[in-house]
Every structure is written in structure tokens, then in C-alpha cells.
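User: Study the chain.
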Amino acid sequence: MRSWFGTLLVMAMVFLGVSDAQGPTRGGKLTYGRYADSLFLDPVFTDANLDIWILQNIYETLIQTGSKGLVPGLASQWGFGKDGKTFTLTLRPGVKFSDGSSVTAEDVKFSLDRARNSDNGAWNFLLGSILSIKTSGNQVVIVLKNTDPSLPAALATFNSAILPKKLYGTAKGADEKSRAKAFAEKPIGTGPFVLQEWKRGSSMTLKRNPNYWRKGADGKALPYLETVRFEIVPDDNARILKLQSGELDGAEFIPFARVAELQADPKINMKLFPSTRVNFIIMNNRPKLKDGSDNPLSNLKLRQALNYAADKQALIKLVTFGLGKPMRSYLSSSTPLFAPQAMYPFNLEKAKALFAESGASPGVEISVQIVAGSADQIALTTALQQMWDAIGVKLKIEQFDSATTNKRYQDTDFQMQVNYWTDDIADPNELTAYAAVFESSESFKTGFKSDAVEKAFTQSQQETNPAKRAALYAQIQKIHTEAVPMIFLYEQPFAVALSKKVRDFVQTPLGVNVFGGAYLEK
């Protein structure tokens, strides 16, 4: 968890105003190049990183993520009751929404009830343990169906952001999603910034929230910046050129092929922020494929052979230009309760022996599905063709558009498919539910199923002892690794290039862009 805490330490220092000796500069406009525009600035209904990664500059949550775990946000303190079935939060006094109205316990109840409603969006499962919510003065009491150790982390996740009940209620719309869209055109939250202007597909400008509650190093309210302007520049090279010319102060999603060049540029601060992105290839573990034919990948030893025959370091060098690192679990190394495993290091002789033991016929053909036109996926699978040919496996590369690939995934109509994941919550339960628990998503549609994993996961969802919960997750990761339902590839960082005058910008391991403590050095 070092990389996770390292980034969060910087984030905490930013918010606490710990900066260079000369102190931060106030004012100025920071222009940041994004590859695509946001879609829907509502924390409950959005399901796109394009929204999620900037939402927390406008809205805030009761609990936030800090250098050593969870820290106070809009709630100054919180805790479970003795039986673990209640969770009480005390609201921070004096906090106002960006329109100047005060944050109340009723706003909190409204926001959390909306977020946990099963009819609203895709994230309500994170608050699925909540039975009811009660308020008393500045306190909010959450009554639980069962103990839930992940609740504090869920309350620090974007969908639990607090909105003003009264103002939201005035938004026009025939149904909840329509009202959400209307409110999101002029969103009101407690974050450091307010939406000033949005030219869809072109730019978005956030201005300083004059009512923001958190203070900087000079004792005055954050943020330091007057505005943050997002300029939409889809082309990677164009974003870099605009940064180098001074038109942009920062640019996201820098191609790994350009990182070394920008690291050598004296005017650029090339940042590689730790992330929770893991890249892998899911394998269909079922005995039969969708068309009824026998599936060779149902054989454990063949799946093991394919993993040993994949030279992860060579693939990392090829696709990420050496900036990635091998997976050591289905969880990223930045995810809480990550427990590193021995993840099939490249061993061609062992791969050949396992292939022979599997009983698979030499020259057996296996297909992998990729998104058409993805240079990284083409490079990756072409390299694997050569690596797996050495043990007698013929890899057939099938290219489909994104919609078709997704449908084939949903229908489990594949042998292999290139895929990836980034966390949305600072807890291992979300990815574990998707990757290792059959009931949730058929274990990333691989078909992997383990009674021991199911039992341990169920226990972990109610285990409040941190050490015991960590042991359960270590057990789950070990079983999953040994069953090898996927080709374990690599993790990769978030590559962001900044002008040297930009100070204290942070992108968290969850991908969130934090501008609240950033400033432009004169």
C-alpha cells in the first residue's frame, strides 16, 4: 500500500496547505488538456471516468481519503455502535454549499437515500447494507442490515457526495434521472470549485467557490486558483504540443511512448501517479463454449502454461515502454488489503511441461478478442502469438468494435478477451465482487467459481476486525491466483504532464483529479 499512501500523503499535504517554503500563490487560471469531455455531472447516475475523475472538485463526501486511510470530510467524526449495526456521523459545523446555503443533516439523509436507491444508477450496491437513515441535530445515524466494514470507504466514494435537498427538489424533470440532468447543468455542491461555463465537446471552466470551508497554508480559504479550464483535445500529439507551447498548463493520458521525451524537457514536469489500473486477459474457464464446442481453457494446466509462457517484462517494455509493473494479484498493489502472490513469472520450460501435462493437442487454436484499432491491444496480442507459439498454441486474434466486444463479453461468447480495471472505492470489495465472486458478474465472465472464495468474501463483508478481514482477503487472492482464471499482465500508472509552474496537482490512485490545493507558481 506504499504507493497508495504516498499519493494520498501528497494529497493530504495539498489540502492542509503544506507546500514549499515560499508559500503558494493565489489567483490565476490553470488550463488542463483532457482527451474527452465529461458527460453527466451527477455523482449518482454517472458511470464514466470522464465525470467521476473531476466530480470531487464540485461535490464532496462525508468522509475523504487521506495519507493514512480515511479522514474527515463534511463529517468531523464518525464511528460504529457497539453491535456494528449503527454508524453515527457528526457534521462539520459551518459548512456551506457553493450558493451560500448551510449543509444540514437532512441534506445528508436525502443524498444518501438517493445514492442507495436501487433504481438510481449503477453504484447503489456500495451502500447496500443500509437499512435506514435517521437525523438528530448535526448528527446522522445510519442503521445497517448487517455489519459492513466497507461502509466508511463507501461513504468516501463519489456517489455518496452531498447535494442540497431543497435546490435539487426545484430541478425540473418527469423522473429522477431527468431531474438529475437538470440539476447537473448548474450543479451545487460543497467542493472547492463551481461550474462556470460548459461548452460541450470543447471546454469546461470551473471557478473558485467563495464559500469553501477548507483553509490553505496562509490561513485563508482554498482553493488558491481562481479558475480551472478544461480544454478538450482528443489527439495525444496535439495535447502535448499545446502543453509545450504554453497553451496548456497540464495534459492527461500522455502516451507511454512520449514519457521519456517529456521527462527530458526542462519546461515539463512529467508525473507518473500510482494508479489502480490492472491489465489482464480474461479466459473462459467453462467446459463448453457458447457454440457448444469443447473449451480447452477449462484445463487448469493449460491456463497455467499460458501464464508461464507470457513474458510479462517483455510485454511491459513493449506496451508501456517499461513504465508498468507485473500484476501480483487480481487487485492492484495500490488497493487496500492487497496481498502479493507468486504470479507465474516467465518460465518457458515449465510452460512446455505444463502444456504437455494438460493433454492439449500441439497446435491447438485459441482465439482472443480485442477492440479494433487499439494499437496497444494489437501489439500485446501479436507478441503473445509469438510467445505461445513456442509451447504449441496458435493464437487467433479477432478484432471487433467496442460495442460488439462488450456484447460478446456480456454474453460470455469468447475464449479470451483483453480487459482492464480501475477501482472506484478505496476498498478491495468492489473488484473482488467482480473478479472472484461468481454471483456478481460470473467472476469477470470467466466462469471461475470457488466455494471457499464465496465463503471468505461473505465473511469479509461483515468482518470488522481489520487483521481478520485482511487474512480473508489474502486467502481469496491466493485461491484466485492458483486457479488462474485470467492471464495476469501488468499495472500501469497515470501519466500526466505539467508545466513546471504548476504546483501540488494530484491524481489519486482512483483517478480523481485534485485541483483544490493546486496553484501556479509565479
